[in-house]
Amino acid sequence: MRRLVGLWERWLEVLRRREPGEALALFRIITGLSLLLNLLPAIRLGLVRVLWMDVSSGGYRGLDGAGSWLVRALGGPTPEVVGGLVAATLAAGLLVMIGLGGRWPALVAGQGMLAISMINNDAKGSYDALLCDSLWILFLAGGTATLSLDCRRRCGRWWAPSSVAAWPRYLAILQIAAVYGSTGLHKVSAFWTPMGGYSALYYILQQPTWHRWEMSALAWVFPLTQAATAVTWCWEVFWPLLPLQMILRAKAGAPGRLRLLLTRWDLRWPFLGFGVAMHVSIFALMEVGPFSWITLAYYPCLLRSAELRAIGRRLRGWRSGRSVAVA
């Protein structure tokens, strides 16, 4: 019984923990931007009617009875329903990005995006589900304490030393670790392993449905794609160890040789560095929608406020130095 009480008290301690809100604010900004990048191309290319409306309204397939409970409750995937959902979701996503309206725009954007993505199973990706998860975390957390229009209206400036609950950031870390870890474990094709010659990325980049342009020239650097395949698979599979190491490092000074070995190096920086390089490469070479933006939104949550501020100072210093050099 005492052990259960102790566990409950530690759990309450985690829920009560407070911290500066910069990481959550950056998570909010990039998530809102990701939602806009998810919907605006479909609007610009005139695909809203084709993808998300019934064939009777100009769509390419019958969608009778399709969609979430919200679409069915509103009357089905008609032009009025779909157009209203897209407009409301875009407006809510913009409010999320600029940080206006507190937590409620995140709820509207999340439910709208969920409803739209469920209309046509042929026109959605796994990143739609991750985006909805991100918006749900933001609804639970808020996220407009700083770097937001709400903060500007409340304090007269964009940044304020307001504290927020720490547990939503922890939840975001667990979410992205689960995404990467499960993605690695689902790569069961032999082409991701020595048995397939680590050739998965090479073949992916030869497929017109994925690549941005013709890439047969990669045959000359096939060993580089093999190395990238092996490192990417290992990086994904071992991602769930990162939250564990963060917990162990937070208890610095605790006894144990194994703990000392596991916490000797801060694994966040190599994991984040490789992740940024990987997603930039994906964005440059492949056409996978806003996948990279949605996942990169989680990266600030792995850093403490002081670390984010230090990065910001370095970037401002680099920009100032570059401006002086140009002048």
Task: Explain what the structure shows.
With 327 residues, the chain is mainly alpha-helical. The chain folds into 2 domains: 21-153, no CATH class; 165-313, no CATH class. It has 16 helices and 2 strands. The chain has helices at 2-16, 22-44, 48-52, 69-74, 79-98, 104-117, 126-141, 149-155, 167-185, 200-204, 222-237, 241-250, 257-262, 268-285, 291-296, 305-326; strands at 18-20, 163-165. It has a two-stranded antiparallel sheet with strand order 1-2.
How many domains comprise the coordinates? Answer: 2
Overall pLDDT confidence:
89
The helix-and-strand class reads mainly alpha
- Counting DSSP H or I runs of 4 or more residues, the number of helices is 16
Largest sheet data? 2 strands, antiparallel
Which geometry do the CA atoms define?
Answer: globular
- Helical fraction: 55-70%
Strand content: under 5%
- Count all strands and give the number: 2
Gyration radius, in Å: 22 Å
Low-confidence stretches: none
Rounded to the nearest angstrom, the distance between the terminal CA atoms is 70 Å
What sequence of helices (H) and strands (E) makes up the elements? HEHHHHHHHEHHHHHHHH
- Order of neighbouring strands in the sheet with most strands: 1-2
How is the topology of this model organized?
Blueprint: H1 2-16, E1 18-20, H2 22-44, H3 48-52, H4 69-74, H5 79-98, H6 104-117, H7 126-141, H8 149-155, E2 163-165, H9 167-185, H10 200-204, H11 222-237, H12 241-250, H13 257-262, H14 268-285, H15 291-296, H16 305-326
Antiparallel strand pairs: 1-2
